[in-house]
Design a protein that fits this description.
about 750 residues; alpha+beta; seven-stranded antiparallel β-sheet; about 25% helix; about 35% strand; flat
Length: about 750
C-alpha cells in the first residue's frame, strides 16, 4: 500500500549530516501509522549528462494516530533540524497535532544517525510551531513552543463532576474523557520551553482560558537571551493582548498591555537579524512595521511596500550570504516580493494564486558550487525558484545622475545658443553701423554720441535691475522677519497640549505670512480659545491678523470682557474704528471670520460664539440628551454613522467688521462629555480646488475622514487630513499639484 502525504505536512530540505548534499524530508501515513521519510541523492555530471545517484533513504515509523469520520485526524506544520544530542549530526524535529481525537499532540525528535525516536511528555495542548535556540548557553538548543487552546477537551474538574453525576449522558462523557486528563490541557494556552531531551526546561506557565495563543521568540538583550511571548485571546475581547518577557527559568521580567491605538495589529513576530536581537511586530491594517524595545515598547515604524501586505511571511537566508531576506505577499496573492534585510533590492516573483496559500517556505541547497534554491510549497506541490538580488536596483541612482546630467547639458547648450544668437546679432549691428558710417561719414560723430547714450542707458538699466534685485531681497527679508514676529505672537502648542493632551493643530499659510491666526489662554479656571480667518492672505492678511490678536487680547486681558459674544462685539467695534469703516459701498469691507470658545473643565461646558465660522463636535455620546435645548435648533445640524454623531453648530452670518447686518453675536452654552471631539476649520481647507474636476473639497469628505478616524489618535487624524489635502491638490493625470489658494488652519481637541 502506498503512503500518503500527511495533511498540512511540510516538504522540506535539510543537510543533517553536513555533507553539503541536501535531503528531502516529509511526513507520510498508511492507515493509522505515521512515518518520517529522509531521502538523499546526489546529482553529478558524466560526459555532459546529469546522473542521479541515491545515497540513502530512511523511512521511520513514529506513532499511530486515530481516525475521525474515516480520515486520519493528524496534522503537522513544520519539520526543523537541530543537533539535540551534541553528536555532530542534526535530528529531525516535528510536531504532530490531533484534532477531535486529542492524541497525539506532541513534539517528536528523530535521530537519523542512530535511527531512534523520542518525544515530549504526553500533554493535551496544541503546539502550532516551535523554534530551536540555545537560550541558556548550554551549547544545546532548547525548543520554544507556540501553543493554542481550542477547548476540545473538558477540564479535569469538569470531568470529575461528570463522574459524580447520575445523568446517563454525563456518565457516558465521563468514561470517554477520563482517558484524556492532562496536566497541561487544551483549555488554556501555555508558555512551554523544552530542553534537548524534550523535557520541560521549567514548569509551563498558564494563561487565561479561551481560544487563545501564546507566540514565542528568543529575544537577545545585552548579550543575554530572554523569551519574548505574545498572549492573544481571539474570543474574549475583555482580555487584553499582552507582550511578556521571561528569563530562562520561566520568571516573568516585564509585561506590556498593548494600548487601544494598536489593537488592530495582526501581531505577527519576526526577527530582523540572525541573533534575535532585533524583533519586529506588524500592523497590517496601517501598513506599518514596528521595532520592539527591551522595555516592550513599539517604536521606529517602517512603511511597508505599496500593493503588498505588511506581514513578512518569512525571514530566511535565501542566497547563503548569512543575511536574511524578507518575503511579502501581494494583496492579490499573485506575487511574492523579496527584499534584503534593510528592505533594499526588492525583487518580485509570480506565484500560483492558490486559495489555500503557502504551506511552507524552505531553502534547497544544491551543493558547494551552486546557489541555493527557494522552495515554496502550495498544497502538496513544491515550486523551486532561483534568486539573485535585483540587478536593476542600483541603476535607479545612475538614472537619477543621468537626469541631472541631461538637465545640466540642456541648460549649458541653451546658454550657448543664446550667446551665439546674441553674438550674431551684435555682429550684424556692427556691420550695419560700418555700412552706414561708410555711406554717411558726416553722421559719424552723431552716431558715436548715440552709441555712448545707448551704452549709458544699458548701464543705467543694469544698475536699476541690480537695485530691483536688492529691493526684492530686502522685501523678502522683511516678510521673513514679519513671519518671525507673527510666530512669536502666536501661542506655543505646549500650552494647549498641557491642558488638552489629545489635541492637534494644522497651520498652513499660503504665503510666507498668514491671514489666519490662532490664540488661546488659560485665565483662572477657564480656557479661552480662538481661531480666525482675516481678509486676504500674505502681508495684508498678516496685518489684519496682528490687529485681531491685539484687540482680542485687549478685550480679554485688559478690559476684562469674559463672554464670547461680548468679546466679538468688542473686537468688531475696534476694527470699525481702526479701519475707519462707514459702510459705504465703495470702501473695503476688511475684517475677519472667527470662532471663540470659553471652556470650563469644572462644569464640562463650552461657551461658543462664531462670526461666519462653525464648530464641529464628533462624539459617540448622546449629544441632544445632554443638550436638549438644541433639539431641532435651526443652526445646529447632526449627521450619524453607526454610533458616531457629527454635530455642526453654525456661527452668525456676519463677520467681525462692518456689515449690512450689525446685530449682537449669538452665544451657545454646550454641555461636553468625555470622548467628545471639538474641531474648527478656516475655509481654506474645504475651499481648496483639486481632484480630477478641479472642484472644491467641501465638507462631505472631511466628515468621512472624521467618522472613520474617530477611534484613532488625533495625531493619526491630523496626518490623514494633511495627506488627503495633498492627494486632492494633485492632478494625477498631469503629475502636477494645484497651488494652495488660501491660508489653512484646523484645530482639534478631545475631552
Amino acid at each position: 500500500m502506498s503512503d500518503f502525504l500527511l495533511p498540512r505536512s511540510v516538504i522540506g530540505f535539510s543537510d543533517f549530516n553536513h555533507n553539503k548534499i541536501p535531503e528531502l524530508d516529509f511526513l507520510s501515513y498508511q492507515k493509522d501509522s505515521i512515518f518520517i521519510n529522509i531521502y538523499e541523492n546526489n546529482i553529478s555530471e558524466n560526459n555532459g549528462q546529469a546522473k542521479t545517484t541515491s545515497i540513502f533513504f530512511k523511512r521511520k515509523f513514529i506513532t499511530k494516530g486515530n481516525l475521525y469520520n474515516g480520515v486520519l485526524d493528524i496534522i503537522s506544520d513544520s519539520i526543523r533540524f537541530a543537533d539535540l544530542n551534541h553528536d555532530g549530526y542534526d535530528e529531525a524535529i516535528f510536531n504532530l497535532e490531533a484534532g477531535f481525537t486529542f492524541q497525539p499532540r506532541s513534539i517528536f525528535a528523530y535521530d537519523i544517525k542512530n535511527d531512534s525516536v523520542w518525544s515530549m511528555p504526553k500533554e493535551g495542548t496544541m503546539i502550532l510551531n516551535f523554534i530551536p535556540y540555545d537560550i541558556n548557553n548550554d551549547k544545546q538548543p532548547e525548543l520554544l513552543l507556540t501553543t493554542y487552546s481550542p477547548n476540545n477537551i473538558y477540564p479535569p474538574e469538569q470531568i470529575k463532576k461528570l463522574g459524580n453525576s447520575s445523568n446517563p449522558d454525563s456518565i457516558r462523557l465521563y468514561h470517554y474523557f477520563k482517558n484524556f486528563v492532562f496536566d497541561y490541557g487544551d483549555n488554556n494556552p501555555w508558555l512551554m520551553v523544552l530542553n534537548s531531551h524534550l523535557n520541560f526546561l521549567f514548569k509551563p506557565v498558564s494563561f487565561p482560558a479561551g481560544f487563545a495563543y501564546i507566540h514565542t521568540l528568543p529575544f537577545k538583550i545585552n548579550n543575554k537571551t530572554y523569551i519574548l511571548a505574545k498572549y492573544e485571546n481571539t474570543n474574549d475581547t475583555t482580555i487584553k493582548t499582552k507582550l511578556l518577557l521571561y528569563d530562562e527559568s520561566g520568571k516573568k521580567i516585564k509585561e506590556k498591555i498593548l494600548d487601544k491605538s494598536i489593537e488592530r495589529i495582526n501581531f505577527n513576530f519576526f526577527r530582523f537579524n540572525n541573533n534575535y536581537s532585533d524583533i519586529r511586530i506588524v500592523d497590517d491594517t496601517k501598513g506599518m512595521i514596528y521595532k520592539i524595545s527591551p522595555d516592550l515598547e513599539l517604536f521606529d515604524p517602517i512603511k511597508s511596500f505599496k500593493g503588498y501586505n505588511s506581514n513578512i511571511i518569512k525571514a530566511i537566508d535565501i542566497d547563503g550570504d548569512n543575511k536574511q531576506e524578507f518575503l511579502f505577499t501581494s494583496q492579490n496573492s499573485e506575487k511574492i516580493l523579496i527584499t534584503q534585510s534593510d528592505f533594499s533590492f526588492p525583487t518580485a516573483i509570480s506565484v500560483p494564486n492558490d486559495r489555500q496559500g503557502i504551506k511552507a517556505i524552505t531553502i534547497k541547497k544544491q551543493g558547494p558550487d551552486k546557489p541555493p534554491l527557494l522552495a515554496l510549497q502550495y498544497n502538496k506541490v513544491l515550486y523551486l525558484f532561483s534568486y539573485t538580488k535585483n540587478p536593476l536596483y542600483p541603476i535607479k541612482y545612475i538614472i537619477y545622475l543621468g537626469i541631472y546630467f541631461v538637465i545640466f547639458l540642456f541648460i549649458f547648450f541653451v546658454q550657448k545658443i543664446n550667446a551665439r544668437k546674441l553674438e550674431k546679432e551684435n555682429l550684424r549691428l556692427e556691420n550695419e553701423v560700418k555700412k552706414r558710417t561708410q555711406k554717411i561719414s558726416e553722421q559719424n560723430n552723431r552716431l558715436n554720441e548715440f552709441i555712448k547714450i545707448v551704452s549709458a542707458k544699458n548701464s543705467e538699466i543694469n544698475t536699476q535691475n541690480q537695485q530691483l534685485i536688492e529691493f526684492r531681497k530686502e522685501i523678502t527679508y522683511s516678510i521673513d522677519y514679519a513671519k518671525y514676529i507673527q510666530d512669536a505672537i502666536l501661542p506655543k502648542m505646549e500650552t494647549l497640549t498641557n491642558e488638552f493632551p489629545e489635541s492637534f493643530l494644522i497651520y498652513l499659510p499660503r504665503d510666507i505670512v498668514s491671514g489666519d491666526f490662532y490664540w488661546w489662554k488659560k485665565i483662572e479656571n477657564k480656557f479661552y480659545l480662538a481661531i480666525s480667518d482675516c481678509t486676504g492672505h500674505g502681508v495684508p492678511g498678516a496685518f489684519m491678523s496682528l490687529l485681531g490678536i491685539t484687540y482680542l487680547q485687549q478685550a480679554i486681558l485688559l478690559e476684562g470682557v469674559k463672554k464670547p459674544h461680548l468679546i466679538l462685539d468688542n473686537i468688531r467695534k475696534k476694527i470699525i474704528t481702526a479701519l475707519k469703516q462707514t459702510g459705504k459701498p465703495d470702501e473695503q469691507f476688511d475684517g475677519m471670520d472667527m470662532i471663540l470658545l470659553v471652556i470650563d473643565r469644572e462644569t464640562n461646558t463650552i461657551q461658543f460664539s462664531g462670526a461666519h465660522n462653525p464648530i464641529y463636535i464628533i462624539t459617540e455620546n448622546n449629544f441632544f440628551a445632554a443638550n436638549p435645548e438644541f433639539q431641532n435648533h435651526p443652526r445646529i445640524k447632526a449627521d450619524k454613522k453607526g454610533n458616531i454623531s457629527f454635530i455642526e453648530i453654525k456661527g452668525d452670518r456676519m463677520p467681525v467688521a462692518i456689515h449690512q447686518k450689525m446685530q449682537d453675536f449669538t452665544e451657545y452654552t454646550i454641555k461636553i462629555q468625555k470622548g467628545d471631539e471639538i474641531l474648527s476649520f478656516t475655509d481654506g481647507y474645504y475651499d481648496q480646488f483639486g481632484g480630477k474636476d478641479r472642484k472644491k473639497i467641501k465638507l462631505s469628505p472631511i466628515k468621512t475622514i472624521l467618522f472613520d478616524s474617530y477611534h484613532d489618535s488625533l495625531d493619526y487624524q491630523k496626518q490623514t487630513l494633511i495627506e488627503y489635502l495633498d492627494y486632492w491638490k494633485t492632478n494625477h493625470l498631469k503629475a502636477e499639484q494645484t497651488r494652495q489658494i488660501d491660508d489653512i488652519t484646523i484645530l482639534g481637541i478631545k475631552f
